[in-house]
Write a structure and sequence with these properties.
CATH architecture: Alpha-Beta Barrel
Oligomer: single chain
CATH superfamily: Aldolase class I
Order of helices and strands: EHEHEHEHHEHHEHEHEH
Number of helices: 10
Distance between the termini: 16 Å
CATH topology: TIM Barrel
Largest sheet: 8 strands, parallel
Shape: globular
Radius of gyration: 17 Å
Structural class: alpha/beta
CATH class: Alpha Beta
Length: about 250
């Protein structure tokens, strides 16, 4: 899977048993057809983890979580779901530090480090999300901001690191950085990870931020872009399929 392009969907707070079943059924053929070239996955709301796992049985679509508790143990943490629970229901990965978590729940580096550590202990692959706001980009602070967000990796002994770069100003807005801006940031992230984790670490850096059927092929062709974290377009079978197919293009 480390040689493949990664296409990961994030359903956010969307879905129902009926619509999920319809969507996953529609993805079965395109995901299976692309499996040699593309690692496909979706992050679903926790309440649908078990049903989604059952629905993808028999074809290679990985199901994961959109978050995990900062508490690693079992106990009196009402409403929380720890990494061990996610592993118990078969979650293959968990998103950590999505910009919406940072914004709405004030998750800082200390909290995110705990989440990363708990995922690794439970053998769940953490996907660390990083990115800058428009104000930070316009004041030329984007690399300082992303570098600070990546710094927690130095506290881990991870041999595999997956990061999703999400310029906050591009998420759900339709605004897209230029391919040069994407390339520069992805190269920066690669160099930071190597510096923090050592030259032998396996790295995947995904781009997330209004990825759609029109721009996917161009974005996926950018150097150091190993795949995409897809938001709204992952909720429709035809658009998610088109993005998966873009990752299979010979030019990539």
């Amino acid at each position: 899977m480390w040689q493949q392009k990664w296409i990961m969907g994030n359903w956010k707070m969307n879905g129902s048993l009926a619509s999920n079943q319809q969507l996953l059924l529609a993805l079965q053929k395109p995901v299976s057809a692309a499996s040699a070239q593309v690692y496909c996955a979706v992050a679903v709301p926790d309440v649908y983890l078990t049903s989604a796992k059952e629905q993808v049985r028999g074809f290679p679509l990985v199901i994961g979580a959109q978050d995990v508790s900062r508490f690693g143990d079992f106990g009196a943490y009402t409403g929380e779901i720890n990494a061990q629970m996610l592993a118990d229901v078969g979650a293959g990965f968990a998103l950590i530090g999505h910009s919406e978590r940072r914004q709405y729940f004030q998750e800082d580096n200390a909290i995110l480090l705990s989440k990363l550590q708990h995922c690794l202990s439970a053998h769940i692959l953490p996907i660390l999300c990083v990115g800058e706001t428009l104000a930070q980009r316009e004041s030329a602070q984007e690399k300082a901001v992303v570098g600070d967000q990546l710094a927690i990796l130095a506290e881990l002994s991870a041999t595999e690191v997956v990061v999703a770069y999400e310029p906050v100003w591009a998420i759900g807005t339709g605004k897209i950085p230029t391919t040069r801006q994407i390339a520069e940031m992805h190269q920066f992230i690669y160099h930071q990870i190597l510096s923090l984790c050592g030259k032998d670490v396996k790295i995947r850096v995904l781009y997330g931020g209004s990825v759609n059927t029109k721009n996917a092929a161009e974005i996926l062709a950018v150097p150091h872009v190993d795949g995409a974290l897809v938001g709204g377009a992952s909720l429709q079978a035809d658009s998610f399929t088109a993005i998966i197919q873009a990752a299979c293009a010979p030019a990539l």
